[in-house]
């Protein structure tokens, strides 16, 4: 029996929150989406998606099922559960920036009602739900977590651009109390096939960080091997393909121009910061960060070598970077290493352009303000060198061989290669 007009309110309608809204709407739940950004809520209520791979049809379908978006936090009073999916970036000094989570907790608290469930989904360090979110919710509501309302943590495993259905991805759930955990598990049971209950919110928070640190460290390893093997005249891509035939004890990771996205370059440093409280270093995380952060400069070095082979300098050259998104076939350019390459080349005096079928123009974001408004350019022979940064499907078949411009390929992606083909 329904006790509230909305089964679930989802705060933060971004890459994580919006797919979650759609999944709950598909399950038949009445969903309220809450965001500070009025442009987003208006766009959704008009049936338009601002995340390309989600598509307008999915939004329209959810709207028909009763989904509505709002900027009005007081409506969460009418929801059985409140899920928090707001950003967790780093400050300029690489400390956790929990201001979005804290502001959300403060905004929810006055509207919290006995019996409601609150779940934090944002990626963060172990202890956040209990040490940061719980006190703010209690202070603002006068209610006690675990007694008057339920509190849990459940990390998101969304993989934007990957067709895997959310319902097929097991979901880890930890609660402040066993009752909190069970309440959250019952809610997520509506949309996922397999739940993975753990003993505490901190264990669930730590699980998410382990998953992302695992990726950061392994990507750093292949990036380091890429440079060493290249010096030895060995093709790292061939080596990885061969190693990946081992049926046990090996999982392929692939090198690239550096880390991008809202997760892998950032999340590991949440643990680094928290570990300081215990006087413990996170040496492997920091080393992986160092190696991965150095990758754009390695690529710039390879670009300079490619130009040098044509008796050209970086200064004054026209360079086209392919792929602004940090991963293939999506429009998410957050933390993209392509920006680092662009900036470094421009500092050296090159004229830099980009092509990205998924990012027709650079949107104003939290960073890279100075390049906002630039537009994707066609791939033509009008450049001194082209650099393939992101392996969008469109580039695999593109005829770089006929184009004849030297190509620096960071992804082993181009099939039709020009005579002057470089890996980076
Ligand atoms: N993007 C991914 O692939 C991914 C995967 C797993 C986990 N995560 C984690 O999920 C969280 C959200 O990431 P995202 O990629 O969806 O971020 P996002 O930037 O795409 O979306 C966040 C949304 O929250 C809104 N917002 C910010 N502050 C708010 C507030 N106080 N109240 C209401 N809305 C607010 C923003 O307007 C934005 O629409 C982060 O902690 C991230 O680390 C992301």
Summary?
The protein has about 425 residues and is α/β, with parallel strands linked by helices.
What keyword list fits this structure?
424 residues; alpha/beta; Rossmann fold; 8-stranded mixed sheet; 5-stranded parallel sheet; 13 strands; globular; binds nicotinamide-adenine-dinucleotide
| Largest sheet descriptor | 8 strands, mixed
Give a count of the beta strands, DSSP E runs of length 2 or more: 13
Could you please say which CATH topology of the largest domain applies here? Answer: Rossmann fold
Q: Segments where pLDDT lies below 50 for 5+ residues?
A: none
At CATH level 2, the architecture of the largest domain is 3-Layer(aba) Sandwich
Shape: globular
Q: How many domains make up the 3D coordinates?
A: 2
Report the CATH C-level class of the largest domain. Alpha Beta
Q: β content, as a range?
A: 5-15%
Based on secondary structure, the structural category is alpha/beta
SSE inventory with pairings:
Elements: E1 6-11, H1 17-26, E2 31-34, H2 38-45, H3 55-64, E3 68-70, E4 79-84, H4 99-108, E5 117-120, H5 128-141, E6 150-153, E7 171-175, H6 178-188, E8 195-197, H7 201-231, H8 236-243, H9 268-276, H10 283-293, H11 295-309, E9 318-322, H12 337-347, E10 351-355, E11 385-388, H13 393-396, H14 400-403, E12 407-409, E13 421-423
Parallel strand pairs: 1-2, 1-4, 2-3, 4-5, 5-6, 7-8, 9-10, 9-11, 11-12, 12-13
Antiparallel strand pairs: 6-7
Helix pairs in contact: 1-3, 4-5, 7-10, 11-12
Bound molecules: nicotinamide-adenine-dinucleotide.
Nicotinamide-adenine-dinucleotide (NAD) binds next to helix 4.
